[in-house]
Every structure is written in C-alpha cells, then in structure tokens.
Amino acid sequence: MPGDGGGGVRLATAHRFTIEARLGPVVDVGRTPTGHRRVIPIVGGTVRGRLTGVVLPGGADWNLERADGSHELWARYEIRLDDGAVVSVTNTAVHDAAAAPPILTSPRFDVGDGGPVALRTGAFVGALYPAPDGASVRIEVFEVLAGAPDPLAEGPPGDR
Where are the beta strands (DSSP E) in 50-135? Predict the structure, then answer.
C-alpha cells in the first residue's frame, strides 16, 4: 500500500536462462568527449536454461569509462533460440570500476511474434560475471516478479 514504508509489493526473482558470450579483442577508441571508449566485440556463445540457443556473432559492448571513474556498459547483440526465433538483446549497467562481480545489469529483449513474447514485457535483471582472462562473460538472467503468477511456469496455475 502506498505510504506504508514497505512499498506494498513483494518482489521475487526467477532464474530464466544463462548467456555465455565469447568476446573478441578490445577495440580501443580512445578518449572522447564522454570518456574513454572501448568496443568489445561479441563473437558467439550459448544460451541455456529455460531458453536454449546460441549468441550470434556481430554484437558488441560499447564500454565507456566515465570521468568519475565509473564504467558504463551498453551491449547490443542477438541470440537465436533452438526453435529458430531471434531475440535482440540490449544490456546496460553503470558500475564502479572496482566493483566485484556480479555486476548487475538491465537486459531488455526485442522479440518477434514467433518468439517468447513474455521476454518483451517482463522486467529482468542480469548478474554479469567476467571471465578472469577477459575472453568471455556469463550473464545469469532473472525475471523480477511482483506477486503475480509466473507466466513462464509449466502446468496449470494451481501446480506452480
């Protein structure tokens, strides 16, 4: 209830899938008016969990080290699910340079009518874990649920 100090909404998360993205060599753009820009190519990978598929090559993270030392992540890439549906992913975050993993991200999904439409309308959070060698990242994707039935759960509502 508004004004009760508790927010009136119970939030929970449900793990949906894991993205393992392989990264190419960093392209150092250099100093720009907004900070130090690096482009990190996304060259492939896998998706596993409640959704399965592959990360398509051709995306990138346009990483920015800002003047205050924080880092801005803005990644755009596509995944192809095993059923053939293509999902466009935009994943963003701002974090302290010294932040320990996981780095919390805000993934958004653009899905065609033949794909999992629930990705289009849900609220999601990612937990990003960079590999020590910098060659890949793992992103655990969770849906944020607000006291409503789970739209991706299997079986009738009474069995969830």
Answer: 53-55, 59-65, 71-81, 86-95, 103-111, 123-130
Separation of alpha carbons 118 and 51, rounded Å:
12
CATH number at residue 55: 2.40.160.20
**What percent of the chain has a predicted confidence (pLDDT) above 90?**
79
Count: domains in the chain: 1
8 A C-beta contact, residue 38 and residue 28: yes
Gap between the Cα atoms of 145 and 158, Å rounded: 17
End-to-end CA distance of the chain: 26
Domain membership of residue 150 (yes or no) is no
- Residue 129 neighbours by CB distance under 10 Å: 16
Q: pTM of the predicted model, to two decimals?
A: 0.85
Name the residue among 42, 58, 62 with its Cα closest to residue 139.
Answer: 42
CA 10 to centroid of chain Cα atoms? 22
Give the contacts of 67 (CB within 8 A, at least 6 positions apart).
Answer: 35
Domain enclosing residue 80, as ranges: 11-144
Residue 44: count other Cβ atoms within 10 Å of its Cβ. 18
- pLDDT for position 151: 58
